[in-house]
Each structure stands twice: as structure tokens, then as C-alpha cells.
Amino acid sequence: MQGRTALIYSHEFNGFSYGENHPFKAQRFRLAFELMQSYGLTSLPGSIVCEPAGVTTEELLTFHDAAYLERMREFSSSTEPRADFLYGLGDSENPVFPGFYDWACLGTGGTLEAVRLVSEEGYRGAFNLAGGYHHAHRAKASGFSYLNDAVVAINRLLARGKRVAYLDIDAHHGDGVQEAYYDTDRVLVISLHESGHYFFPGTGYDCELGEGKGYGYSVNVPLIAHTDDPLYMKAFDEVVYPLLAAYDPDIIFTQLGADTFRTDPLTRLEITTHSYTYIMRKINALKIPWVAVGGGGYDLMNTARAWTIAWGVMNGRNLPAKLPESFVRVISPLGYPNRMLLDAMHWADEGDRNLALDAVEKSIATIRRNVFPIIIGGNHP
Q1: Per-residue pLDDT, 1
Q2: CATH number for the 5-375 domain, one of 3.40.1050.10, 3.40.50.1820, 3.40.50.150, 3.40.800.20?
């Protein structure tokens, strides 16, 4: 797939903190960017690195509630501890700190710039590292997410008459995005995630298919603990890929959370860069304009490796399996033992794997029965 690409990055991405003991660490953006630099991926011909754009209140209001935005601005400008649990602000997940509204707008502006470049400037791909806050609801912060940058940006695409497929591979279900489009057929929303049975946000079951005109346009593949590389690729190949190909959107919008990896401290899936790379290549092979955003990832090196792979694939680059020596010299004093970018395929223990296989096959059968006739059968608009 030929054409220009854009990486949305700002040093300001690293200038905020949710708190010393909070699992979300903004330093992962800098680590990912430095790994990309060490592979020469930030100075490619036909590619640019650019700052995020601004975001207006009017753009935020295409999804978010005005009173919620006002409370965010009020708390963001205060130096005193504040909380409003009606809006999900000030709890342990979504702390209030000076400038947090500006921080949320920064990420949202990055995603808006990515969709502008792809939909209006003819770029074939754009990746905003500081996007993917898929848990933010219309009037409530949730799951480390204050503003839902994906929904705000997709709404801009819809206003331009674009057909959009949203694919979310974060370990957590993209509940805020599903909420936004649950009753419409204008966006195909697919989420491949760890089952919400005992896992945040407790949604994303394969029976959640949309309602009204949106029936069949919400697709969820809940994976149970210990789902490994082969099972993850199976779910992608048998559900996600045929739906994306059949829907044939104008733009694919992907949330590329890296918390699915087997060493992530908050999740229980067992994938590696092996299946992650496979999925990135399959998306790129569709040759459909591609907007990507970051998302979860609480092992910082896993996140840096994953997003470097994604950016490399978006630019048609096959990267060496070993991390560059210059990067190893940077991370070694920080205590990171990683030396490889690419992992061998990982298989879970047999007993765990058999349970995970049963769950995957059940979901595949449900989706084929209820969704395939609508999307692949050609009955979509």
C-alpha cells in the first residue's frame, strides 16, 4: 500500500501524570517514540511526524455532554482536591490533577489530526500514539479515559459521509465506542478483548449485537484467560478479517491497545508480538486508508514494542527481530531486560488452552449465525 503516512507525537504527551501509583504511565509514549527513532522509523521518506491539532468544544459536543465538559474544565483549573463521582471524576481510576482536561484534549486533538490527514489530505495511514481512550462515556470518565477521542474523530468522518469500521484489540472491551454507535448501522464496531465476566468493564459479550438499525453492527469476541497467539489469530481470521473485507469501509479505525500481552500486569491473555504483528499485517493488506490510535498497555516495553511494530507495518517496513543496540543501551540502566522486538509464537498450557479454545469457538459460531448474514450477506448500507 503506497502513499504518505503520519505519526502524531508531541513531547507534551509525556508531561502529565495520573499519580505515582497509578498503572497508566505517560512515559510509555516517549519510550515508544524512542524505539521508533532507533529503528529509523521517524525519518522515513513519504512519512511525517507532526503535533496534534486543537479540539473545539463544538467537536467534543458531538458526543460529550456539555455539563460534563464544564465540570472537567472546572476541576482541571483547580489546585484543590476535587471529586464528582456522578461524572466519574476524582476516583482512583480517573484522578483529577491540574491540567487533566488539557491532557485529554491533547490526545483527542491528535486523533482528530490523524483522521483529517487520512480523510482530507489523502494520507494512507496515520497513527496517534496518545489516543484510544475507549472507555469514556457521554457524561462520565471511566477506565483512565476522560474524553472518547475515537468517537469524536469518527463523528467527524461520518459528517463527511465516510463509511467507518472500528476495530478494537485492547484487552478491555471498547464500551464507550460501542455505546456511541449501538443503535446505528453507520459504523461497524468490532472488539476483540478479554471476557468481561470477571474483568473490567464487564461488557462486550457476544450477544451484544446492537439494536434497531444497529443490529449486527456491534461485534464482540470475548476471550477468556490464557487465550494465546494461535487462538487470537484464529479469532481474527474467522471473525474480524472477513467482516472488515465484506464491509469494505472507506476508513479502518483501529485501537491498538497492547495490554493483551502475556506479561501485562492488569490482564490475563497470553499473546505476544507474534500474533500482534500478524494482525497488523492483515489490516495493512486490506489496502484501506488506516487510522490507528494507542490504547492500553501497562508493561511499558511491551507497549513500545507493539506500537513500533504497528508503525513499521503501516510503512511497509520489516524490522529486525533484535532491538537496536542504541536502544538497549538506553533501557538497560532502567532495568528493562528486553532484547527482542519479535517474539516466537506462544502456546498456553494445554488445560487452559482447551478452555480458551471452547470459548473462542462458541463466540465464532454466535457471530457467524447472527452477524455474517447481515454484513457478509450484503444487506448493509
Answers
A1: 46
A2: 3.40.800.20
